[in-house]
Amino acid sequence: MSRIAVVGAGAWGTALAALHARGGQTVHLVGRDASSLAAINEHHENRRYLPGIALPPAIQATDDPELALADAEFVLLVVPSQSLAGVAASLEPHLAPGATLVLCAKGIERQTGRFMSELVAGPLAPHPVAALSGPSFASDVARDLPTAVTVAATDADAADALARQLSSGTFRCYASDDLTGVEAGGALKNVLALAAGIVSGRNLGASAQAALVTRGFVELRRLGEALGGRAETLMGLSGLGDLVLTCSSPQSRNFAYGAALGRGEDLSNLKLAEGVYTAAIALRLAQQSGIEAPIVETVAAVLERELTVDEAVQRLLARPLKREVG
Ligand SMILES: NC(=O)C1=CN([C@@H]2O[C@H](COP(=O)(O)OP(=O)(O)OC[C@H]3O[C@@H](n4cnc5c(N)ncnc54)[C@H](OP(=O)(O)O)[C@@H]3O)[C@@H](O)[C@H]2O)C=CC1
Ligand SMILES: O=C(CO)COP(=O)(O)O
């Protein structure tokens, strides 16, 4: 029987552990906060990240990677993108030979511009690598609501097998061999969701919102293709699908962060929003590729405080366009 371990006991890691533990199979969930882990084991609830959602008792939360990973065939890595390199290096001695690593973070490392698969390629090189990405809020998956995502690996047969392995009656995984496209879509949609949040927070209306999402998708596709992703991938679940989800719901941390920015609120208590870390590096990648990405550029500038929110909104909505497509 396959064994699944999840590293990262935040919202998404806990939801994925719940998904796979629902059939009764033990799933180890590796975290670092002893009291949260104890509460998951005793009360079957992650009160910090998914309060009020009942978790399957087959989740075994632990801070011991050796125990969790010793016989895990599939290891889901679900820590934020800026922490992944360090966490991956620390896991290396504990991984079972041949264990498949499933990358679930959506981002680009700020310091280096590397995608998640590039971060693990060094320290964990002997292990097969895949990415899981697509429109999927943790609280939906934890509550067993229907969800569809993309599972990508450069080897198409491995992607097919993994998609079958990770699918359930409510969690449908579509396979792809375009790992780059899937990673690019997942990282870039976060930056665009910040922009959608700003427009919503400023109460600029549903029409402006639709314009922003559509133009945002043009940037996502242009830049995703320049980075090596395929157009059809960027138009799929892990690109357009996730963009639509995160640009339309305050459940999205990126959208919520942008909306708070738009309303001029204090941002210090808001939870992690990956796009905040990704915007500047996404802009740099666009510039290096000679890609026009005015929305990404505006978001990066407002986060760096080079523009006020009013100036950003002005730019987002009043910029003259040359052509609609291209
Ligand atoms: N939330 C969602 O709906 C979805 C999120 N994602 C992606 O999943 C990734 C994780 O997001 P999410 O679970 O929401 O984030 P959370 O903030 O909910 O949880 C992050 C978890 O990672 C842990 N962590 C952070 N840094 C380290 C570190 N250096 N070493 C060990 N553990 C660490 C945190 O531990 P501690 O609690 O101790 O700080 C926390 O348990 C992101 O890239 C996000 O884009 C993808 C799809 C859906
Ligand atoms: O990626 C997500 C849903 O697919 C979650 O988005 P946020 O990180 O913006 O909450």
Automatic annotation (TrEMBL):
Chain ranges of the Glycerol-3-phosphate dehydrogenase NAD-dependent N-terminal domain: 4-158
Which positions are annotated as binding sn-glycerol 3-phosphate?
A: K106, G134, S136, K189, D242, S252, R253, N254
Task: Name the EC number(s).
Answer: 1.1.1.94
Which Pfam families does the record associate with it? Answer: NAD_Gly3P_dh_C, NAD_Gly3P_dh_N
Q: Which residues form the active site?
A: K189
User: Binding of NADPH: at which residues?
Assistant: W12, R32, Y49, K106, A138, R253, L272, E274
Sorted alphabetically, which keywords does the UniProt record give?
Answer: Cytoplasm, Lipid biosynthesis, Lipid metabolism, NAD, NADP, Nucleotide-binding, Oxidoreductase, Phospholipid biosynthesis, Phospholipid metabolism
Quote the catalytic activity from the record. sn-glycerol 3-phosphate + NADP(+) = dihydroxyacetone phosphate + NADPH + H(+); sn-glycerol 3-phosphate + NAD(+) = dihydroxyacetone phosphate + NADH + H(+)
Task: Give compartment(s).
Answer: Cytoplasm
- Summarize the protein's role: Catalyzes the reduction of the glycolytic intermediate dihydroxyacetone phosphate (DHAP) to sn-glycerol 3-phosphate (G3P), the key precursor for phospholipid synthesis.
Write down what this protein is called. Answer: Glycerol-3-phosphate dehydrogenase [NAD(P)+]
Q: Which organism is it from?
A: Jiella mangrovi
Write the gene name.
Answer: gpsA
